[in-house]
Write a structure and sequence with these properties.
Distance between the termini: 48 Å
InterPro entries: COMT-like (IPR016461), COMT_C (IPR001077), COMT_dimerisation (IPR012967), SAM-dependent_MTases_sf (IPR029063), WH-like_DNA-bd_sf (IPR036388), WH_DNA-bd_sf (IPR036390)
GO molecular function, one term: protein dimerization activity
Radius of gyration: 24 Å
Strand content: 5-15%
Oligomer: single chain
Shape: globular
Number of helices: 14
Pfam family, one: Dimerisation
Strand order of the largest sheet: 5-4-3-6
Largest sheet: 4 strands, parallel
Organism: Salix viminalis (Common osier)
Protein name: O-methyltransferase domain-containing protein
Structural class: alpha/beta
């Protein structure tokens, strides 16, 4: 059993010891921030605040959410974490949205909500519980260690995961393309064709195709991802395996 003699610890050493303990606690309990944020999204707290039209008090927020009456007293603690994290702001009048929580609104065309719900789903999170095992084996990724196959294979077999993943990638693509078209539009000038490799349901390519109507854009992804997706005059979907071949074009886009 470890014993520490307090006589051997001076004031500076005591402060250092407490700071070290605080770092361990912060790392060990950091998941609370993630889970609190996921809870807020699943309870539609950002939308409840938005729909209220002005800063909302705690009692008004409780009344607007689908929570059990016995849990209403605990909402304060959840909101306290999220205010401390900068997700919401709190003033005398009540809780308000911040630029961060506005990204979690259902109606926001660039909402990060689907991406957050994918990241914090048990399937993508399980590999993190297997990291030490993965370091000891020959599996290519921790996802393989956790699930016995890569994420693309599992998504092809699991409709729920496939939808979750596609919605997450579309969400990220919409946000990324909006920024890229604002800041880096010149990169695409002069291109006659482009293929978005691993383009999912085409959010990024659709944005590019609409911005450059004379450019022929192709979304290339696994067959189960692009099957049945409608194209347009200058946008088409092609199924295949990027590790075997990729359609030819003036430029290849790899978003991540």
């Amino acid at each position: 059993m470890l014993e520490i003699s307090m006589e051997l610890i001076d004031e500076e050493g005591a402060n250092e010891l407490l700071q070290a303990q605080a770092r361990v606690w912060n790392h060990a309990l950091a998941f609370i921030n993630s889970m609190a944020l996921k809870c807020a999204v699943q309870l539609d707290i950002p939308d409840a605040i938005q729909n209220h039209g002005k800063p909302i008090t705690l009692s008004e927020l409780v009344s607007s959410l689908p929570i059990h009456p016995s849990k209403s007293q605990h909402l304060y603690r959840l909101m306290r974490i999220l205010v401390h994290s900068g997700i919401f702001s709190l003033k005398k009048e009540g809780y308000s949205l911040t630029p961060t929580s506005r990204l979690l609104l259902k109606g926001n065309p660039m909402s990060a909500r689907p991406l957050l719900l994918f990241w914090l789903d048990p399937v993508p999170m399980e590999p993190l519980r297997c990291l030490s095992t993965w370091f000891r084996n020959e599996d290519p990724t921790a996802f393989d260690t956790a699930h016995g196959k890569c994420i693309w294979e599992l998504a092809g077999e699991n409709a729920r995961l496939n939808n979750l993943l596609n919605e997450a990638m579309a969400s990220d693509g919409a946000l990324a393309c909006g920024v890229v078209m604002k800041k880096c539009k010149g990169v695409f000038e002069g291109l006659k064709s482009l293929v978005d490799v691993g383009g999912g349901t085409g959010a990024m390519a659709k944005c590019i195709a609409e911005t450059f109507p004379t450019m022929n854009c192709t979304v290339f992804d696994l067959p189960h991802v692009v099957s049945g997706l409608p194209g347009s005059k200058n946008l088409k979907f092609v199924g295949g395996d990027m590790f075997e071949s990729v359609p030819s074009a003036d430029a290849i886009l790899l978003k991540v």
